[in-house]
Amino acid sequence: MAFPHRHLLGIKSLSEHDIYYLLDRADEAVQISRREDKKTSTLRGRTQINLFFEASTRTQASFELAGKRLGADVMNMSVANSSVKKGETLVDTAMTLNAMRPDILIVRHSSAGAVALLSQKVGCAVVNAGDGAHEHPTQALLDALTIRRNKGRIGGLTVTICGDVLHSRVARSNILLLNAMGARVRVAAPSTLLPSGIAQMGVEVFHNMEEALEDADVVMMLRLQRERMDGAFVPSVREYFRYFGLDQQKLSRAKPDALVMHPGPMNRGVEIASDIADGPQSVIESQVEMGVAVRMAVMETLMLSGANQS
Amino acid sequence: MTRTILTNARIVDPSQNMDETGAVIIEDGKIAAIGATAANALPSEGDIQDVQGQLVIPGLIDTCVHIGEPGGEHRETIASASKAAAAGGVTGLIMMPDTSPVIDDVALVDFVQRAARDEAIVSIYPAAALTKGLDGEQMTEFGLLLDAGAKVLTNGRKTVKNTLVMRRAMTYARDFGAVIACATQDAYLSGGGVMNEGLFASWLGLPGIPREAEIIPLERDLRLAALTGARYHALKLSVPQSADAIRAAKAAGHAVTAGMSINHLTLNETDIGEYRTFFRLSPPLRTEDDRVAMVAAVADGTIDIISSAHDPQDVDTKRLPFADAENGAIGLETLLAAALRLHHSGDVPLARLIDAMSCRPAKVFGLPGGTLAPGSRADIAIVDPDYPWVLSKDDIVSRSKNTAFEDARFSGKVLQTLVAGATVYRA
């Protein structure tokens, strides 16, 4: 079987082969998305439900567009008008949706593990679009695709992940994926924004960002949420930017052709200077394009070549 | 080049394990040569001062000094505190951040440094607030404050109540290698207490502060220091159970140090007598047994540092019923004289006392001074260790007069104080 998984719940369950498989399919999806006629019939007649318990604009739009380009019927359910607000449990919501016979569920939830729980209760494929601070597998895949298309490879590269690793599902998925692909992963953050045991997660830990960026091939910035920079985790925006914001001076320590990445939405002037975000090394917009392609590849693969094909 | 030569000096410098008679040669504000060898090779030119066998020691560094400026200049200014310091042989001091406004911003650290540069005759090192407004909730900008010149982070008189805030602050401070210095007193457990809890307080009818109010937050902090790897300094300890906790933390290899005030090493709760508010301190003066045990903890090095805990208060905050008065006593001028009581009583060797008031403070907080090694800044106190005198209120240099040693008899007096080779005080 080309892809032996029924769901995509995290990077952790993927082999190196699985990742290559998805990235190769995503490369093809990029071509489709660049055509004038972007519509295919791969998933015609299939029903995709985007179930977002946590607000999202970008990821939800990306999944919606991916589904539509594959020809699926896409329905969006966001928490604002869901019955969760009326007290229904997560599992009851899943059972109700399952009774409507969808073919694929795209789920985001603020609690780690919630998507896996839901996947056990439904009869269709489930894609984790982010569960708490646990995993965000399609983000890691789109980051990998962006790196591979720019650098030609992932193995052997030095990737520095900077910022709020503690609260970041993007960081966890990326650490897993980059390690699986043989990259050298560094993290740079104040200790208050690093999870306990980070040094055993397959990364080199730095508290000095300039040292962490020395000769890096890729710089991945993470978003720092506003409520975390008022003295609880870091003292202030200006201090955070001074020591951990990506500016020209810090970036000059990385390789001259280092890629600058950010999962969005950015806080300009907090974790990244505007001129860097808009600069020649930034591939932030390209990441968005790769996001649609990766999500097309994931859904197509789960529907057609995965364990859901019976 | 300017050259000053001190001859016939008994030099005691624990940083070099030195206790010998010799000379000190100062060139351009720095120690050029020292000891018996220097005495045998005196340069032909320079101002020669025969110190007639008196003690020459590295200038004291007082690690816990409250100053009224900014906001309480009627109690003490940076300039007046520096004069009091010079009179006590103190050549450098750490200024606590609990002023009004609180020193919790880069601009205020700058203010202190500028005022110190322009008006002070000894070195004044700003400590920065650990939390904004000392509210115990939000971290200050540690990195920017340290870069601006703050030497230590502290919440001053207040203990951070929120354990999570404390953990995060220690975690964050560790990245910068900063020392967090803390007074440890549980505000809830202290309740409305105003002196040591026990029989004496009960007879006086005053609410007491149990020793556990100090021990519990100290043990909490020591566990957090172990968890985070932060450098932690307990500012003001008073009971032997605290010293035991420090001893255990040090034995476990944690980056922990401890200090206490000279008041708690030379006075006890009975000095309060009939409600004398100058003896109302935080932590409160403890029992004689506690004092004796803490003196031993200083002697064996468990307690690294002795400070004055200088805390000027005016009549408006001290001429009040005991329970309504503020805590605190001045101490810069009497730090050394009071400490010499422990030398004369045979409880603490002279070298350990100088170590605790000069060498260790410099080491723990990364400050200049604390040594007379060649090349170091010539911060020096010349002391007659036996000179008998009585502290008269009229002789107090500090702007506030709330001393716990009024009319006290001392043996030992500072004769002269030099900062970077220049005399800033002469008795």
TrEMBL record, chain A:
Catalytic function, reaction form: carbamoyl phosphate + L-aspartate = N-carbamoyl-L-aspartate + phosphate + H(+)
Binding positions (carbamoyl phosphate): 58-59, 108, 136, 139, 264-265
Residues at which L-aspartate binds: 86, 169, 223
Alphabetical list of Pfam families matching this protein: OTCace, OTCace_N
Stored InterPro entries: Asp/Orn_carbamoyltranf_P-bd, Asp/Orn_carbamoylTrfase, Asp/Orn_carbamoylTrfase_sf, Asp_carbamoyltransf, Asp_carbamoyltransf_Asp/Orn-bd
Pathways involved: Pyrimidine metabolism; UMP biosynthesis via de novo pathway; (S)-dihydroorotate from bicarbonate: step 2/3
Known EC number: 2.1.3.2
GO molecular-function terms, A-Z: amino acid binding; aspartate carbamoyltransferase activity
Role description: Reversibly catalyzes the transfer of the carbamoyl group from carbamoyl phosphate (CP) to the N(epsilon) atom of ornithine (ORN) to produce L-citrulline. Catalyzes the condensation of carbamoyl phosphate and aspartate to form carbamoyl aspartate and inorganic phosphate, the committed step in the de novo pyrimidine nucleotide biosynthesis pathway.
Oligomer status and interactors: Heterododecamer (2C3:3R2) of six catalytic PyrB chains organized as two trimers (C3), and six regulatory PyrI chains organized as three dimers (R2).
Sequence similarity: Belongs to the aspartate/ornithine carbamoyltransferase superfamily. ATCase family.
NCBIfam families, per database record: asp_carb_tr (TIGR00670), PRK00856.1 (NF002032)
Protein name, per record: Aspartate carbamoyltransferase
Species of the source: Pseudohoeflea suaedae
From TrEMBL, chain B:
InterPro entries from the UniProt entry: Amidohydro_3, DHOase, DHOase/Allantoinase_Hydrolase, DHOase_cat, Metal-dep_hydrolase_composite, Metal_Hydrolase
BP GO annotations: purine nucleobase catabolic process; pyrimidine nucleotide biosynthetic process
UniProt domain Amidohydrolase: residue ranges: 343-425
SUPFAM superfamilies reported in the protein's UniProt record: Composite domain of metallo-dependent hydrolases, Metallo-dependent hydrolases
UniProt EC number: 3.5.2.3
EC class of the enzyme, as a word: hydrolase
Domain Dihydroorotase catalytic: 53-237
A cellular component annotation (GO) from this entry: cytoplasm
Protein origin, superkingdom: Bacteria
Statement: the UniProt record of this protein carries the keyword Transcription regulation: no
UniProt xrefs under NCBIfam families: PRK09059.1, pyrC_multi
Protein name: Dihydroorotase
